[in-house]
Amino acid sequence: MVEETEPLIIDLHLRSIKNKTLFVPLTDPIMILYSVADYIVNRLDMSPKLYVRLPGMQSTMLAVKGAAVHPIVIFGAAGLPLMVLRTPPRIGEEAFKLYSYLAKVIVDWAERNEFERIVMIDVKPATSEDSKVYFVTEEKLVEKIAGMGFTPYSGVFTSEASFFLDECLRSRVDAILFIVESKKVKILLDAYRKRSPEAVERALQSVAEHDEEAVRNAIKALSKVSGVNIPLDRLPDFIKEVSEALKESIPQLARRARPSTFGIA
Predict the structure, then answer these.
(1) DSSP label of 194
(2) How confident is the model over 83-93, as a mean pLDDT?
(3) For residues 214 and 128, which has the higher predicted lDDT (pLDDT)?
(4) Which residues partner with 134 through β-bridges?
(5) What is the pLDDT of residues 97-110, one digit of tens each?
(6) φ/ψ of residue 166, rounded to 5
(7) Among the listed residues 128, 160, 133, the one whose alpha carbon sits nearest the alpha carbon of residue 224
(8) Where would I find the H helices in the chain?
(9) What pLDDT does residue 260 have?
(10) Cα 81 from chain centroid?
(11) 158, exposed or middle or buried, with CB in 10 Å at 0-12, 13-18, 19+?
């Protein structure tokens, strides 16, 4: 619950929108979830609605066609019951630090503004050719989410989502975590396990083609649980554009990922 120790700003324009969902994409070494957020923001014509300032966090700014964009932004569109949190693409320990700061601020804001749920999406290496979408949620929602066709996840997991799940369990906002399987992440994981620079280089060449299947599955999961239609008609062209950018950015991001990012000691 929010402690009334300082003045708070309540966004009254959000009160009239019912069944609101905040999408929190987590981080992954090949930017699958960054692409998911980017596609949704562009396809639904969203624009920045709120900025989040976190004291103590290293300043990271982004420029788009000469215009400065704040690194931590919540995007939305008029009357749309879906908003998207955008953060800098960080991985490993940097991601955990960022989301540990963010969780309470974001959940408190969502509760004050009467959001129904926060949906997080994470990525794990695929375990078979038939990529699945797993979920973790509150006990009261397990049967409902399973009834939508998603697979309950069992086992210990270490994820930035734990910060949000913990805060939501102590609030009125429901928390749902989807874990999307990715064949491309598995390729990169296997390369790191070999501990061979040559294997990593070959994996990066495959990763640069991006993972359209994982992006598509993540968008479908969010669309189904939020009730917001997110057309996928422009996804193939979007993936082609992302793939071109990844050829330059993925090697740098992936090399920053430590083996522990993939659960390798």
Answers:
(1) H
(2) 76
(3) 214
(4) 151, 179
(5) 777 878 999 999 99
(6) -60, -45
(7) 133
(8) 32-43, 93-112, 142-146, 161-169, 183-194, 197-207, 212-226, 235-256
(9) 47
(10) 17
(11) exposed
How many helices (DSSP H) and strands (DSSP E) are in the chain? 8, 10
Q: Are 153 and 134 in contact (CB under 8 A)?
A: yes
Q: What token pair was written down for 58? A: 């290293």
In order of start, what are the domains of the chain with their CATH numbers? 16-182+211-232 (3.40.50.10900)
Quick one: tokens of 100?
């540990």
Mean pLDDT, residues 228-251 taken together: 85
Question: Residue 223: how many CB atoms within 10 A of its CB?
Answer: 16
Question: Do residues 152 and 19 make contact, with C-beta atoms less than 8 angstroms apart?
Answer: no
d(CA 35, CA 102): 20
CA distance 112 to 123: 29
Mean pLDDT of the chain: 83
- Mean pLDDT, range 3-17, rounded to an integer: 69
Q: How far is CA 59 from the centre of its chain?
A: 20
Q: Quick one: tokens of 98?
A: 């960022």
Predicted pLDDT at 3: 53
Backbone angles phi and psi of 63, in degrees to 5: -115, 130
pLDDT band at 57 (very low <50, low <70, confident <90, very high): low
